[in-house]
Queue: 3 jobs
Job 1
Amino acid sequence: MRRWDPSLLLSVGLAAGFLLLSAWVVSGRTAAFDAHAVAFVREAASPVLTAAAKGLHAIGDVGGMILLVVLTLGILYAGLRLRRELVWFVGVQIGSFVTNELLKRTIARSRPIEMPVVDVSGYSYPSGHAMAAVAFCGALAMLLWPRLSTRGRGLLLAGCVLWPFAMGVSRVYLGVHYPTDVVGAYLAGGSWLCFAVWLKRRAVKRAPTVSGRRFSVPR
């Protein structure tokens, strides 16, 4: 009996969840939920939160993410001498961006129109900032997890959960996305990340050997 890789199964499950949510979004069944959630988030508005949300907006934008990825690559290479792993890391980020653009153009959901705090363009679903945060944090966790202590893993896990969550909430707070845009981004980003993990595991199994040693890619 063939045994399916858990990462592939999770990728398929998350993709199914995304498709189901997308069907609800297109049919308008999520409108009431979005309206209530937006009102709840907006009630917490304050100058401090607005400044923080704008900061997250800048970091999560295309230019900010490119800078963040480049800095991360430099640190990981200088500190851990990772090479092949970093190629995979970059591939995850590029794949996330391309997938997000394709999904946005396919579903073509308009953005909220009620007084956005920052100027944005393009379609709304799924959130590019939230999806990029999932891809970045998830791929970074995959590279660092085997190399950290128990305490370090705890800190890494906390950061990789809080960052996408904060990014998602900030998109709703700024009025540039509906809550379901963010949820959809988490599902799509998680599905893509798990698929990328499955791909690298296949690469490990099929990698050629040199002098009896197999080329290594992150497990």
Note: The longest strand covers residues 209-210.
Job 2
Amino acid sequence: MTIVALDTETHLISPNNQAPRLVSVAIKGAGKAQLFARKAGLAQVRKLLRERATTIVGANIAFDTCVLGAADAALIPLLFDAYDADRIVDVQLQEKLITIRQGSLKYTKVSLGDLAERYLDESLDKSADGWRLRYSELDGVPIHEWPAAAIKYAKDDARATRAVYFAQRRDFEGYPHRAELARQTRAAFAMRLMQNWGINANAESVAALRAETEAEVEQFSKQLHKAGLLRLEERYPKGVLKRDGGKKVVVETRSMKAIEARVKAAPAYKKSGAPSTATGRASTSMATLRDSGDPVLENMAKRAKSAKVLDFVRVLEKATEHPFHPRWNVLQETGRSSCGSKEDPGNLQAQPRKGGIRQCWEPSPGHIFLTTDVDCAELRSWSQVTYSLFGFSAMRDVFLQGEGRDDPHMALHLAFPAVVPDRQFAKIPNFGFPGGLGAKKFVDYAKNYGKRVSLDQAYELRAAWQAQWPEHQPYFDHISDLTSDFSDHELTQLFSGRIRGQVRFTQAANSYFQGLTADMMLDAFYRIQRACYARPGSALYGCRAVAFVHDEIMLEVPYENRRDDRPHRAALEVQKHISDAAAIWTPDVPNRSSSAAMRRWYKGAKAKYTKQGLLRPWAPERDAE
């Protein structure tokens, strides 16, 4: 297999152009690095993609392949074919897989510059005043007329990428497995396509949400000022100094002594004492305020929650002007993806729970949203894990009973109605205990579902859950063995062979089924994106993915009227891609997914059909057509 590194130089990214115009292509094989201008570079890439014995290596290669596809649409099927054949891989993702095994992902930077320093003891020029951000100036200029520094920078990236790839394979003896690296690289490409497309917000809805939330914050603030827990204070803005001529501004600040005193006197903490910080002071965390039993402190927690909503509103406001392009990250320690960053706070996988936020998102004109989610995805994965490891799973037996009887939540409720009062409540132990929660932690976990559970109730619930699903015992024994002082603390993910190192008990317990679900859903997502971009005969061709929320995938689908069968056909195809992926990743547990169409992003959307049996847009009663 021939290894060839590839790197592109482009115009700058902009909100409406996430795959900017191609300027040049650098290629490094066994010989010297070569640099080609746009037209010649596209011809070279086309040749590489057709060479079945060639593997293309890149750093953030998903960006490069998106740029190439945008420059020449005829390359898109060839790109997908190469991804399908495991012939495109990424050194940054390879490093992530390596550091996940080492247990150091969160502490490790994986940019090409960082990798060159780590493996090659070499510093690449990534300065802002270098050529990195200036290649638009050279668009259309023959390569032989380029400044030497611009040529060197472009070639150096390709040269370093190839050298890093071989150094990683050498130092870690061929880990990660080629198939897993290629699969993660495919998934990153699928996510980058989604990021490039983006998602829009409705200006009127966003303005109404801001007004409502600001009114909430103001109402809470008045009460807190009256109680002496907030005060106005003159301060210099952050980063502004008096000696520079800066002026003070009036800011709202918390009166910490007053808050701590009120926490200590709160009804919930009179007997047992208030939670404390590491320094011994009374805690003023949001959880402490929320659980205090003091209405004023509870409102302080609600105010903080509303303030966070305003942070998200700012993201929504930008999305009313041009599409919002979330920063999707394909791989975390568990195998799950993530969304957003400190620089880009728009996390579509964990939007604030306040009503009205999701429905601010709207599809492009002439489209509707189509969302498809897998029923009990992580519980099905847990069933597969326990069945694969131990040869039995009571929860799997429930899933095998067929639609209408394949509900583990109802099964738990019916078995222990005195302890688990209804099906909805059963979700709390069913989702919480497989990850290794103890009774004490479960009390806090239940609050996320709006339920207050005493410690005694938590013990009863855990006992009921354990009795219903006896596979928990060998599962947690296995996790204990993995994380004992006598083990290497390494967990090998089923089917993918991905290894997570330095795992603690609950991390290991969660990783098995969270990682398996992520592997299945990302596999399905890539299949869906391939149909959207490279399968003209598919009902999905021309549709665009806008969100990936672990076990849910949302697309924009063209839609004209109720007689339009496109959303219905698209939904069936999405469900088939998920089923095909599930047959690989959870082969011993049945899979079931469902789709809903909608004109806005509604959390509780249900499938709704015309008299002819075609899927049509669903909306809450107040927003119905």
Note: DSSP finds 20 helices and 19 strands in the chain.
Job 3
Amino acid sequence: MDFQALLIGIIAIAIGAAMMVLGYRLALILLPIWGFFVGFIFGAQMLQEFFGDGFLATTTSWVVGVILGLVFAVLSYLFWYIAVVILFASVGYWLGWGFMTLLGFSETGLIAVGIGLLLGAIFAVAAFVTGVPLAALVVITAIAGAHALIAGILVLLGQVAVADLGDGIASAIIATNAGWWLLALGLAVMSIIVQLKSVGEYVLEPPAARI
């Protein structure tokens, strides 16, 4: 296992576990971290699509990934609803994309990507319309955390290459074995139960813009 896989795997597991257990309670801290995670993957993936390089295969892709990750993280920290949109949209996108690959559509095909974008947009709009109630934030952080956790484990086990993450976390998991995706969904359900029981009287107060 190279250092790149070790680093990505450990980070994904750490973020995933935190989101699963404390996604709602620590949303103000975890959402900017998730924003960096999403921006990093999106930046590296964007470079891959434009120049045909492997996902995180060059120093440039790492630099672009880190820069875009920092931009997403800062925006998520400064503006609560941007953080929420990034979270909901990324989860919707990866779930839609992953489900279409499960049905046999090409990971890079227009249908899989299009459905992913559509579901991501629906999730993002739903976040605004509903005002992000407790249940919605718990469910989304649980799903995001479970997928990140399983993806990180698979990277450390050598069953998912870092390059595969460029096709989306859910797609990378499904490409390995659909059973892993079912496990991720099962962990998400467990996370929802744990979070709802641990929330108690705590009520998340979305902060005003920090700028």
Note: The radius of gyration is 16 Å.
